[in-house]
Amino acid sequence: MARSRRIGEFELIARYFAPLARGFKGARGLKSDNAFLAVDRRHDLVVKTDTIVAGVHFLAGEKPELVAARALRVCLSDLAAGGATPFVYQLSLSLSRGWTERWISRFARGLAADQRRYGIVLCGGDTTATPGPTTITITAIGKVAHGKGLGRGGARARDELWVSGTIGDAALGLLAARGRLKSAILEKRYRLPLPRTTLGPRLVGIARATADVSDGLLADAGHIADASGVAVDIERDHVPLSVAAARIVASTPASWATVLGGGDDYELLIAIPKRKRAALHAVARACGVKVTHIGDFRRGAGVHLTVAGRPTIASRRGYVHF
User: Fold this and answer.
1) CATH number of the domain residue 88 falls in
2) Distance CA 286, CA 211 (A)
3) Can you tell me the distance from the alpha carbon of 307 to that of 315, in angstroms, rounded to the nearest whole number?
4) Rg of the chain over CA atoms, in angstroms?
5) Residue 322: its pLDDT value, please?
6) Does the reported pTM lie above 0.90?
7) Cβ atoms within 10 Å, residue 240
């Protein structure tokens, strides 16, 4: 008997859960990572929920402070992609057997440090025990001007694709954390994401579409292309690398697959019309963030990679949940 094919994350959402969101405009068909809730004439609330699981999204035995930072910051990255300023969050914590009060104390200390850093405060949640691995779910809520929230849809043919910061550090850093290469700098980049919470809100009025790089550069660029109904061409040699990542890629060219498809960068992908270049550079400078033009949108579908202008096939597109 033939095995039935297991569908992927986005097909699962489109088939089973998007129909449940029909009739609510702020859900955007569940094609965005955020939901947008109008609260008054001036503001929308931007809502994002994310779950991280021990052994899947963070290393077993990771320091509790770093687990807390990752749990909160991955949500803040999505708020940034929505153009939102952080406001409040809720925490649901499912603790595995053998948890200790010391672990909780350090975890809470990590949350407190990030609350101060990002100007956000806890407003509720839930705690429970589980026979499985420790699981942390955070729902973060931000604010954006009414009707101005950013999402994946909206890019048009002839728009440009830009990215903040550098790409590939976190995926290479995971290899370092697992002992497969040596780089304290890259390992820190994996363990401690830096969401672009200052840049994100300043993209309102500049960007047509945005996404944060969580699943991988190619995968998340593809999400923008799919949601916008266009194709995007990305030139590999334009993708910005840190000094540490560039050194690894130069010595091991096969590492490009990890850089482009590894994910966990939490940088912002930004689709803009060409006339907005100067405005993008201005806000990026004001935030102290580097931005790089890596590709262009056109009529068609999907994400297409070139190397020195020639089409190539990427061996790894991004993280697959199922």
Assistant:
1) 3.30.1330.10
2) 21
3) 13
4) 19
5) 45
6) yes
7) 18
